[in-house]
């Protein structure tokens, strides 16, 4: 099967097998329907990175394009490189997701000022996506990463679409369903899953 093309912008991002430590040493830190995510050491960047192994090549190319466009913002996870031969997207590594942080804290509540700080950062990232006409479509705790210095970064643009897109549903499904995690989908999206993606979809998921 042919690998997806790498644009001229992405040629500078090429990562080879020699740049990463052996896969047997990688630590799995996340998984989903379309990809697995690992923590790995990258010699080229002299530090740990998050390696996303994508199962579908077309999904990878779309996400790479969006990451290249959007990763300049402090509250969007940055792209570090691409290994097209192995369908890997290499991104900056963050120690936690909001979901993982919540599990670590257990019954200990995050102080309200810290919650407001997180919300401001997430909203800043969402606003940046929308300013660039991108609808994330899967904002949730698992897709908001947190660094050791408590900087929030929006991750996983695999389902993101341009706001001019004519559909918001999963065409691969036998029955048309709205894309994203079901517990975060707005009532109006359930009623009209094939309608174009809107900024309000992300706002509902955020709150």
UniProtKB/TrEMBL annotation:
UniProt: ATP binding residues: 52
GO molecular function: ATP binding; protein serine/threonine kinase activity
UniProt keyword annotations, A-Z: ATP-binding, Kinase, Nucleotide-binding, Serine/threonine-protein kinase, Transferase
Record keyword Cell membrane present: no
Transport found in the keyword field: no
Any GO BP: regulation of autophagy
Domain Protein kinase: 23-207
GO cellular component: cytoplasm
SMART domains assigned to the protein according to its UniProt record, in alphabetical order: S_TKc
Family, as annotated: Belongs to the protein kinase superfamily.
Name of the protein described by the UniProt record: Protein kinase domain-containing protein
């Amino acid at each position: 099967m042919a690998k997806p093309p790498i644009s001229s912008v992405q040629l500078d991002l090429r990562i080879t097998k020699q740049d990463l430590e052996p896969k047997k040493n990688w630590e799995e830190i996340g998984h989903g329907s379309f990809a697995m995510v690992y923590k790995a050491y990258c010699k080229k960047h002299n530090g740990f990175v998050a390696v996303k192994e994508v199962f579908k090549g077309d999904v990878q190319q779309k996400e790479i394009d969006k990451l290249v466009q959007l990763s300049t913002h402090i509250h969007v996870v940055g792209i570090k490189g691409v290994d097209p031969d192995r369908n890997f997207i290499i991104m900056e590594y963050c120690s936690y997701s909001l979901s993982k942080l919540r599990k670590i804290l257990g019954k200990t509540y995050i102080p309200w000022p810290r919650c407001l700080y997180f919300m401001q950062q997430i909203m800043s990232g969402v606003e940046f996506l929308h300013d660039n006409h991108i609808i994330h479509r899967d904002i949730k705790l698992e897709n908001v990463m947190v660094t050791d210095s408590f900087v929030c970064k929006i991750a996983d643009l695999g389902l993101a679409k341009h706001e001019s897109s004519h559909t918001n549903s999963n065409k691969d499904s036998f029955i048309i369903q709205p894309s994203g995690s079901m517990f975060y989908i707005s009532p109006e999206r359930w009623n009209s899953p094939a309608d174009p993606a809107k900024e309000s979809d992300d706002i509902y998921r955020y709150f």
